[in-house]
């Protein structure tokens, strides 16, 4: 059966993708920083769906940990069919002149460099097979900048550009590349952005019904299961009450 590698699988879109693909019989490599959550997810999915799950605990920001951990897995697990570069986050929401350097570093190192480290390690495996699919999680913030989103928007614009570049560079190897850009979704995203302030995070979603992690996972699964000759290159998904990164209709 096919193997899916999902980064940032301990919550949000990554966890939802793990559950979606597991329910459809895929074996999984799941990565994240929280070992307990990885182990619990592994147990849950293996018991419920009779599949194999390989949990790998590392931070995508750590290039040595990424390359050492992935390269050390058994050879049979390197037959990855789908790579979902999901690990990412927003940290803080300040104007450009008031941003925290440490927040900028976390976002750039996770959203851009982490995606590159994982991709650089896994792409040779896909090339060796002469097929594969890379799905990169962007954001509506990649398409339109909004107030106080500066560096986060820049990192997701980088994901957009890197996805286009991957599509070109990997064209000769029959490797699909899809960028999926979700809008507002009620996951741990806002809680992380506001550094644990649950009240402030909850206010983000007041007055409208946001996307759920499952909505995005369903969309990713659709993209990943199209016929071999079909590739969705770029896809923006929002809830009904959101038009883009800026415009909302709130009740």
Automatic annotation (TrEMBL):
Keywords: Oxidoreductase. InterPro entries: NAD(P)-bd_dom_sf (IPR036291), Sc_DH/Rdtase_CS (IPR020904), SDR_fam (IPR002347). GO terms for molecular function: oxidoreductase activity, acting on the CH-OH group of donors, NAD or NADP as acceptor. PANTHER family: ALCOHOL DEHYDROGENASE. Belongs to the short-chain dehydrogenases/reductases (SDR) family. This is SDR family NAD(P)-dependent oxidoreductase. It comes from Chitinophaga oryziterrae.
């Amino acid at each position: 059966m096919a193997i899916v590698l999902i980064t940032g699988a301990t919550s949000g879109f990554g966890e939802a993708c793990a559950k979606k693909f597991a329910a459809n019989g895929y074996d999984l490599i799941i990565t994240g920083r929280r070992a307990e959550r990885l182990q619990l997810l592994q147990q849950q999915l293996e018991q419920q769906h009779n599949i194999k799950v390989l949990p790998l605990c590392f931070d995508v920001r750590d290039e040595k940990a990424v390359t050492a951990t992935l390269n050390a897995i058994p050879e049979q697990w390197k037959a990855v069919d789908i790579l979902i570069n999901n690990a990412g986050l927003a940290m803080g929401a300040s104007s450009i002149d008031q941003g925290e350097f440490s927040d900028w570093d976390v976002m750039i190192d996770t959203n851009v460099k982490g995606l590159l480290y994982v991709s650089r390690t896994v792409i040779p495996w896909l090339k060796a097979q002469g097929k594969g699919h890379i799905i990169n999680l962007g954001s509506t913030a990649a398409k339109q900048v909004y107030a106080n989103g500066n560096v986060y928007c820049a990192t997701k614009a980088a994901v957009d550009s890197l996805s286009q570049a991957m599509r070109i560079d990997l064209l000769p190897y029959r490797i699909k590349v899809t960028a999926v850009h979700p809008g507002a979704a009620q996951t741990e995203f806002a809680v992380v952005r506001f550094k644990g302030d649950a009240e402030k995070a909850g206010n983000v979603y007041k007055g409208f019904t946001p996307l759920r992690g499952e909505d995005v996972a369903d969309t990713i699964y659709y993209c990943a299961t199209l016929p071999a000759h079909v590739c969705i290159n770029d896809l923006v998904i929002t809830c009904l009450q959101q038009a883009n990164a800026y415009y909302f209709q709130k009740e």
